[in-house]
Design brief:
It is a single chain. Helix 26 (about 555-565) packs antiparallel against helix 28. Helix content is about 60%, strand content about 5%. The chain contains 28 helices and ten strands. The radius of gyration is 25 Å and the shape is globular. With about 625 residues, it is α+β, with helices and mostly antiparallel strands.
Length: about 625
């Protein structure tokens, strides 16, 4: 359990370190869960980059050092503010909710990896990447579904999960524990940030802001009640048993997109942790400015800069928000921005390469089909619901001084509506999620102000909160009712054969299966499911052309293509989605192995044998 030991000790160390600069246990807790997880991920990166270091012994030494130094630091901590019982109860509730949410989407049971039906598509790009770090030798990192090309994807969360599994943690715990830390860290960071922003009513604002972020504000419920009677018991029973999301554009008809529900949190774990690090950085920067610690601000910038490989879009969005704050009078943010940019730049270069087809282009209106002024208004009102009116919060004097933060949120919102940052325009939703996370602070502060203003306004606040959350409650019912899909078994004979008899650096020519037993053995395949590679900017058209040629080629042409593309094994597959069954060159070649997993029969050929069969 070296993986769990180093993760927990990392949290303890960063809690102790932060308590030297703050009297706020919630803020220190946010730093522990977010930055503690981030720095632990970088320790795994170092161990994988330098395999000469003994993996488990080094981890144990690091964990012990965390504990020893953390114990020394905690003795010199600043006297803590008293933690109200309601805050402790809320933290426990958030942690319990996060645990259920993430383990409900990914879990191991009886040696089988189960993934929720609404998560199984997205995780097809992640499980193979995780396993390439845990049981493979994927360093320098490549995308396992597009072998022999440098990775173009912020992979640090997947590397962390792979490292934790390699260190003995069960795969579902390795994936879910950092996510639980991230979501709980978001709430704790909100407590710390709202304390600096508003001083009063900190807990209700933070809790409501977190709740509004978790339960999206869209008008999906309007579309639902167009087809269901509002005052019918059957309609409300139908909500409890919803099998699919009401709003899931552009993958189904409608205005409300798929990027507002909790499904984004369950599917994109790097987003959760990235948002937690972003909010914690904001809150810590205000705390360090209050303590007049310029060294602390610079150190914070260095640590924040390490998050680029974790979630690149959120990092860039955070730079934008902090830049606006810095130019609007909060100049201490420059001490965070400068080192963060310098630390992140080499990471940016490592994810950029000449073969990438990704490019920035103008694209007006994000996913709205109707690009007219009325069409855009209709689209965003449907997606934002009452949150659309959040900027009116700036009319309240207690909130108005934080207008730079609202401007930063607006710029984050504006970018996906004007610019396409990747081949898939929908991928820019991370900036929208980041924007709404900030805006919800203002929405929550406004609703708390309304609640406290007059007893007659309390019903208004209750109705508004209900309307803001109702679509999110409906979405949660979908996840509650979700079914699980078995994507892999720990004793899969194909996976075991590949792990035992092939080299960790070998590349395989296989079918497009996202959960191919070859990738689950930690190996890379030449061309997996094209959508993932295309969305990351790889030249999938050229690789498809090469694949089509190899599928029909005979020797010596087949041998030449396999050698040129550095493919070590060819896999003929018989069963569902058969692959290469009709290639005549394979009929003459020597089989390396013939393995079945109950669904398919896999026949393995070594490239060297295929070439020798010709000569």
């Amino acid at each position: 359990m070296a993986g769990l030991f180093v993760l927990l000790s990392g949290w303890f160390f960063h809690y102790a370190l932060t308590r030297r600069f703050t009297s706020s246990p919630p803020l220190a807790g946010a730093a522990a869960l977010t930055f503690g997880t981030l720095i632990t991920a970088w320790f795994f990166w170092v161990l994988l980059a330098f395999p000469v270091l003994p993996f488990i012994p080094t981890l144990i030494i690091v964990a012990l050092a965390y504990c020893v130094v953390g114990t020394a630091l905690i003795k010199n901590r600043i006297n803590a503010q008293k933690i109200p019982v309601k805050v402790m109860v809320a933290v426990a509730a958030v942690t319990f909710f996060a645990t259920w949410l993430f383990f409900d989407s990914v879990l191991m049971r009886n040696g089988e990896l189960l993934i929720g039906r609404w998560s199984v598509s997205d995780f097809g790009a992640h499980i193979g990447l995780i396993r390439s770090f845990s049981v493979g030798g994927n360093f320098p990192p490549e995308f396992p579904l597009f072998g022999n090309e440098p990775i173009r994807y912020h992979y640090l969360v997947d590397l962390l999960a792979g490292g934790l599994e390699r260190a003995g943690l069960r795969l579902d715990f390795a994936i879910n524990l950092p996510s639980i830390a991230g979501l709980t860290g978001i709430f704790l960071a909100l407590v710390g940030l709202t304390n600096h922003m508003f001083k009063k009513n900190v807990f209700p604002i933070a809790l409501l802001g977190f709740t509004l972020f978790t339960f999206n504000s869209s008008l999906a419920y309007v579309a639902f009640f167009r087809e269901h009677a509002l005052f019918s018991l059957e309609s409300w029973q139908a909500i409890l048993t919803l099998p699919e999301f009401v709003g899931f554009a552009p993958y189904k008809e409608g205005l409300v997109t798929a990027f507002w529900s909790q499904n984004i949190l369950t599917n994109q774990r790097h987003l959760v942790l990235g948002l937690g690090i972003f909010l914690t950085t904001l809150a810590l920067a205000f705390e360090l400015k209050q303590r007049k610690s310029r060294t602390g601000l610079i150190t914070l910038g260095v640590m924040f800069g390490l998050s680029y490989l974790l979630q690149a879009q959120i990092f860039i969005g955070a730079l934008l928000v902090m830049g606006v704050l810095a130019m609007a009078g909060f100049r201490f943010f420059f001490f965070v921005l400068t080192p963060a940019t310098l630390v992140a730049f080499p990471q940016f270069l490592s994810l950029s390469g000449p073969s990438s087809t990704a490019g920035v282009a103008w694209h007006f209106g994000y996913l709205a089909e109707d690009k007219s002024a009325f069409g855009l208004l209709r689209f965003w009102v449907a997606n934002l619901g009452l949150t659309f009116f959040a900027p009116f919060a700036l009319f309240i004097p207690q909130i108005r001084r934080w207008w730079p933060l609202m401007v930063g949120a607006f710029l984050l919102f504006l970018i996906p509506n004007l610019i396409q940052l990747s081949p898939e325009i929908a991928g820019s939703h991370k900036l929208l999620n980041q924007s709404i996370l900030i805006v919800n602070i203002f929405t929550a502060a406004t609703l708390v102000w309304v609640w406290n203003k007059s007893i007659y306004l309390k019903p208004v606040a209750i109705v508004t909160v209900t309307l803001l959350m109702f679509s999110g409650i409906m979405d949660l019912m979908v996840l509650k009712n979700d079914e699980h899909v078995v994507v892999w078994s720990a004793n899969n004979p194909v996976t075991e054969w590949v792990k035992t008899y092939t080299n960790k650096q070998d590349v395989f020519l296989t079918s497009w299966d996202s959960y191919h037993p070859v990738t689950l053995a930690g190996r890379k395949i030449f061309f997996g499911w094209p959508y993932f590679s295309w969305s990351l900017g790889y030249d999938t058209a050229e690789r498809q052309r090469v694949l089509d040629e190899m599928a029909q080629a005979q020797n010596p042409r087949l041998c030449m293509l396999l050698t040129e593309n550095r493919i070590s094994y060819v896999v003929k597959e018989k069963g569902i989605d058969s692959f290469l069954l009709d290639n005549p060159a394979l009929q003459e070649a020597k089989e390396r192995a013939h393995v079945s997993d109950g669904n398919k029969i896999y026949t393995f050929y070594r490239t060297i044998d295929l070439c020798n069969s010709h000569t």
